[in-house]
Amino acid sequence: MEKLFIYNTLGRTKEEFKAINPPFLGMYVCGPTVYSDVHLGNCRTFMSFDLMYRYLVHLGYKVRYVRNITDAGHLEGDRDEGDDKFAKKAKLMQLEPMEIVQKYTVGFRDIMALLNNLPPSIEPTATGHIIEQQEITKQIIKNGLAYEHNGTVYFDVEKFAKTNNYTALTNRKLEELLENTRELDGQEDKKGRLDFALWIKAKPEHLMKWPSPWGVGFPGWHIECSAMSTKYLGEQFDIHGGGMDLQATHHTNEIAQNIAYCGKSPANYWLHTNMLTVNGQKMSKSLGNSFLPMELFTGEHHLLSKGFSPMTVRFFMMQTHYRSTLDFSNDALLASEKAYTRLMESYKVLQTLKASATTSENVSTLERACYDAMNDDFNTPVLIAHLFDAIRMINSANDKKVSLTQSDIDLLQKIYQHFIFDVMGLRKEEEATGKASAALEGVMQLVLELRDKAKTNKDFATSDDIRNKLTQANIQVKDSKEGVSWSI
Predict the structure, then answer these.
(1) Contacts of residue 1, Cβ cutoff 8 Å, sequence gap at least 6
(2) Which fold has domain 20-273?
(3) DSSP-derived 3-state class of residue 149
């Protein structure tokens, strides 16, 4: 069986990975906190792990892919201080917290489906695993590495660090962390400045809370993933992933919790996706350069000249290695659209190629190069470069400049199916753009005429209602100087 090669944070070699990896693989990815719309950083992270999941399955591994939904409500900040995000949103929108959860969970799954991400094997929720979180907390207290104060349970970081390497994942010094930790309200409740909450006492006005041995409260952020990963993948599994912003605190604390609980670090490999920038600047709302996924698809953003199909966005993200910074720009998306179109057009040409009696190309070497790229830490930029070598072969054969045998053509078909469609998860152009049937074209013409009549009559409520209902049906309407256009 083909073996996977990964260079990881903890420094294992290719040979060590090959020696320890079983045919069954467990992969846990920290999922979204569903109190707002999914952002592009989430999309990139989950798309990267979707690619890994697809490739591991392609190699023949039985993969249990667990991606959680964080829905229990959390305090602002890594050290559990500030206001609860879910409560703030629920009060603002005058909804129950679980209505917020449902709204944004559905929205998250819709975006994942548009980007052609496969659903995980298991998608557990934090609120569905309160008992497991309490049981792990009890055991950590019993093992002498956590303590309760006034209804809140804290993990004793400095005591843990006396016998364990607390910063193994980041190689930072504990002294540095202590020096850089700012004073917080309620700090006097903790023994150490780095101690973090496993269970938090709920204030009377707190909306999401549960009974516990320490009083009514709610779980800390880090304990949720420890509970869900342990339940579904065991005390040790293969791959744990998330965005790089989770590495220094969330994942560091997960490792500490698991060791304190059962004496084992949870994962053999920790993989982290890098950050996004826009035109070389950090993406942020204050700079006006942040995007929601639907804004990319519709083009309704001041930095975009047009909308881009979900498959163009997916292809664009895969042109940069998951551990490298990804820079968004209108020009880069336009270039990716052209490249993606070339890839899809070459596939159509491939279906029409006539075989020659002899060959002048080495397609098997190309196939091996594609596997080598993916085996080298899922190196999609190199994989894409090899796929463009395939485009050159196909177009040259079509122009009679090179010759390909039937076995060459069959192998190219296999390369496209395996790497473009199965592994990279790209759809064929007609599937990706959701081209409409003639019947739908006619219906949309009628609907847009009704909307236009409503606008002419200054019935803007009806006009907006038509647009909103089309959006809910994943049909985007865009008004411009040239007229009205729509897309699925």
Answers:
(1) 23, 59, 60
(2) Rossmann fold (3.40.50)
(3) strand
Residue 269 neighbours by CB under 8 Å, 6+ apart: 6, 8, 10, 12, 17, 238, 239, 240
CA distances to 9, 133, 218, 258 from 227, in Å: 23, 5, 14, 9
Cα–Cα dist 121/119, whole Å: 7
Q: Backbone phi, then psi, for 252, in 5-degree steps?
A: -60, -45
Q: Judging by DSSP bridges, how do beta strands 62-67 and 24-29 pair with one another?
A: parallel
In whole angstroms, give the CA distance from residue 102 to residue 90: 12
Looking at residue 74, what is its pLDDT? 65
pLDDT > 90 fraction of the chain, expressed in percent and rounded: 63
Q: Distances from the Cα of 274 to the Cαs of 121, 241, 245, 327, in angstroms?
A: 24, 12, 8, 11
**pLDDT, tens only, 16-50:** 555 555 568 899 999 998 888 888 889 999 999 99
User: By C-alpha distance, which of 287, 372, 275 is closest to 326?
Assistant: 275
**The residue type at 20:** I
Q: Which residues contact 434 (CB under 8 A, 6 or more apart)?
A: 474, 487, 488
For residue 372, what are the CA distances in angstroms to 138, 315, 320, 485? 46, 20, 17, 43
Q: Domain residues of the chain, as ranges?
A: 20-273, 277-432, 438-487
Q: Class of the 277-432 domain?
A: mainly alpha
pLDDT tens column, 201-231? 998 888 889 999 999 999 998 999 999 999 9
Angle at 330 between CA 327 and CA 335, to 5 degrees: 85
The CA distances from residue 65 to 12, 27, 233, 261, in Å, are: 22, 5, 9, 23
- Nearest CA to 175 out of 158, 150, 197 is that of 158
Q: Which 3 state secondary structure label does DSSP give 151?
A: coil
Q: Do the Cβ atoms of 222 and 251 come closer than 8 Å?
A: no
Residue 99 CA, chain-centre distance (Å), reads 23
